[in-house]
Design a protein that fits this description.
Layout (H helix, E strand, L loop, with lengths): L1 H30 L4 H10 L4 H11 L4 H11 L1 H10 L9 H9 L3 H8 L7 H25 L5 H25 L1 H19 L5 H4 L4 H17 L8 H9 L2
Length: 246
Amino acid sequence: MNEFVRGIKKGFPICLGYIPVSFTFGLIAVKMGFNPLEATIISLTNMASAGQFAGIRLIEGGAPYIELVITTFVINLRYMLMSLSLSQKVAPEMPFYKRAIMAFCITDEVFALASMEKEDVTFPFFGGLMTTPIFGWTLGTCLGAVASRMLSPMLQGCFGIALYCMFIAIIIPPARKGRKVAIAVIVSALLSCLFKYVPGINVLSKSGGGGWAIIVSAILGAAICASIKEVKRFNKRKLQEGGAHV
């Protein structure tokens, strides 16, 4: 029980941070035709953040199921890598069903806190760590969905800006730290603009909800980023010292 309570305390700040973002999701979901109950159930059964926003836009645009599946898979692919990394910090004898429950709430923030644990991540601790974020994400969605019927269209449009702020907050910090990430972001953004505005190839953006444009832009951007080789810069003095020993 102590581990569970410790997890709840650690996850509480994440809960507070999720409420305003999921509030916006609730507003947008209702605006797109979902009722408040449907929007709340989506957040309760998905901890996908950007994947949820993209998913409801594709549904609104009438995208086929295969486009919806592939788009959300590409967007949420990072969670698979996080799960593989976090699996190294759980006890080998942990049953599969417990691992599956833990995998349900692998988000960027939850992963960051869990990976900083010095000891093995226990199931009670992670259960507490995921409880508060799930509650905050679901509560915020419910509040936003209900409030959408009380707010004016102008105020709803103002809250919609929070979605773009969230994406900017996600990509800017890692882009500032890593040159490859920055290049991937720029390339993906340029490709997305091409698919949106250039005649002939903008058919990808016009089909369904534009999911294929997202898929191609993300994959090509990541592929170009991965193909860039880091050039190691050697200190001239060390290079001379190394040559002296030859």
